Structures are given as structure tokens and as C-alpha cells.
From TrEMBL:
Biological classification of the source: Eukaryota, Metazoa, Chordata, Craniata, Vertebrata
Classification via InterPro entries: Homeodomain-like_sf, HTH_SB, WH-like_DNA-bd_sf
Species assigned in the record: Fundulus heteroclitus
Protein known as: Sleeping Beauty transposase HTH domain-containing protein
Residues covered by the Sleeping Beauty transposase HTH domain: 4-53
Length: 70
């Protein structure tokens, strides 16, 4: 099992998003790919917010957060 999202390859993150879009739940995706369900949830949440599965730098996250509050 992996402890950090950055350790998960982009291809696997894309597969998680594809399974989610196909209507699969977090737990089913988690069991299928043997990744913790909280990690799956965080990847999908990030994809919904930033529309990307790539790792974002802290600066990009901060810019997105401040633009959303203005």
C-alpha cells in the first residue's frame, strides 16, 4: 500500500477517474486497484476541482483557492 498520492502514477490516477465516471463507487475502485478508499476519494475530489490528475504544486493549489474566494 502507498501512503502518499504523489507515489501513485498518473496512469493509475486516470484509471481511478475513468472507473468513477463509469459509475463505480470509491470502495469498489479501492478493492479493485488495492488502494485505500480515502486515496481514491482524494484523487476523484482533486479531479473534480482542478480537472486534472497530475500533481499540482503548492503554488497552483494556492492560486486556485484564492481565485475561488474573490
Amino acid at each position: 500500500l502507498r501512503s502518499k498520492t504523489n507515489d501513485i502514477p498518473i496512469g493509475l490516477r486516470s484509471e481511478i477517474v475513468a472507473l468513477h465516471n463509469a459509475g463505480k463507487g470509491y470502495r469498489l475502485i479501492s478493492k479493485t486497484l488495492q488502494i485505500p478508499d480515502c486515496t481514491v476519494r482524494n484523487i476523484v475530489r482533486k479531479w473534480k476541482r482542478f480537472n486534472t490528475v497530475a500533481s499540482l504544486s503548492w503554488t497552483m493549489k494556492h492560486i486556485e483557492r484564492t481565485q475561488g474566494t474573490e
